[in-house]
Design a protein that fits this description.
By secondary structure, the protein is α/β, with parallel strands linked by helices. Helix content is about 35%, strand content about 15%. Helix 1 packs antiparallel against helix 7, helix 3 crosses helix 4 and helix 8 runs parallel beside helix 10.
Length: about 350
């Protein structure tokens, strides 16, 4: 680092994105992207957006996108916040609501700890249960903002709406942020609880089920005052954070919602097929409700398995944390890709048994 770098950031450990290698062609099962392209309506909307207007700023209020999202989730536009990916929203939420501290699971999305450190917020990591589950009772009366990914990453495990309601009820004076990046793959959104709880902040993304990871678009749902807080942070940093092409894509994606939800259904089917095949091969697999699986095999080092897959052109995600180092997170691709993954896995296991 340079001698000019602020001392308060010198010990900051940045988030590590999934690798995007260029050295060969891979089956990419490491970053939880959708294996399916955007809808025809989404592609057409981007194509028809007038490139001659790129010299003009986009609408900072994102009014039309907020309108269609509000209709999709049965809330008013004033209850919708949109930004440049859900990571931006998480960052803003930690800035806006984390002054008295933040509580989150010890094994979860890595950005929770990064944002806490970045903004010098006190934080507490709550250990997952014996089966890697988030336990609602551990978050009662937390006395701080709570951030929970539901389904959790990288485990894929899901809290029920009743469990989320329990957390909300026992923390009336603090924001409870439910990060629903993977909710469309088998869970029920806590957006249905917004009318009951003023402390609920629901965050979703267009990157997973809506096939727009490359467009960078996320949104949040909450009471109007919470949304106004987030808008203040946004307008104090980058009010034009969503470009014209992304706005057009986002509106069309919401309007062609059935296409994306049908694709999510196909991913669920492929996930269950892959899970059953791994079980046949002796793997332990969590009961994932996300677009990925979290799996390990007794007697096979998790990092070595990851490396052997990589050598054969299949990328998955490995984490070095002690408790989960024997696991790998496997994004669900299309059926052909997952068939190849299973066949490559069989080859690795056969070679390891010799």
């Amino acid at each position: 680092m340079s001698k000019f770098f602020a001392s308060k950031y010198k010990e900051l450990e940045a988030y590590t994105p999934g690798e995007q290698p260029r050295d060969m062609k891979y089956i990419k099962l490491n970053t939880n992207e959708s294996p399916y392209p955007p809808s025809k309506e989404t592609i057409d909307a981007v194509k028809s957006e007038n490139a001659l207007m790129l010299n003009l700023y986009p609408d900072p209020t994102c009014a039309e996108l907020k309108k269609v999202l509000g209709e999709r989730f049965s809330v008013n536009a004033e209850n919708v916040f949109v930004s440049n990916g859900s990571d931006d929203i998480l960052n803003f939420a930690f800035m806006a609501f984390g002054e008295n501290g933040v509580v989150f699971p010890d094994i979860s999305y890595g950005f929770y700890e990064v944002f806490s450190e970045l903004h010098n917020l006190p934080y507490k990591k709550i250990p997952l249960g014996d089966n890697l589950e988030i336990r609602a009772e551990d978050y009662k009366n937390a006395g701080a903002m709570i951030a929970i990914a539901n389904p959790n990453a990288p485990t894929g495990l899901l809290l029920t709406l009743d469990e989320i309601r329990e957390i909300l009820t026992t923390n009336p004076d603090n924001i409870v942020l439910i990060d629903e990046a993977y909710i469309d793959f088998g869970g029920k959104s806590s957006a249905s609880l917004l009318s009951e709880f003023e402390n609920l902040l629901v965050v979703q993304t267009f990157s997973k089920s809506r096939s727009l990871a490359g467009a960078r678009l996320g949104f949040a749902l909450a009471g109007s005052e919470i949304i106004a807080d987030l808008e203040k942070i946004k307008y104090s940093t980058n009010p034009y954070s969503i470009n014209r092409l992304t706005l057009a894509a986002g509106i069309a994606a919401v309007e062609s919602d059935k296409y994306y939800m049908d694709n999510a259904g196909e991913i669920i089917k492929t996930r269950e097929y892959t899970k059953n095949e791994l079980l046949k091969l002796g793997f332990s697999v969590t009961d994932s409700y996300a677009n990925f699986l979290f799996a390990k095999k007794e007697g096979i080092d998790g990092k070595i398995f990851y490396e052997e897959l990589r050598k054969r052109g299949v990328l998955v995600r490995h984490f070095d944390k002690e408790r989960i180092k024997d696991y790998n997170r496997i994004t669900i691709g299309n059926p052909k890709e997952m068939g190849t993954f299973i066949e490559v896995t069989k080859t690795i296991l056969q070679e390891a048994s010799k």
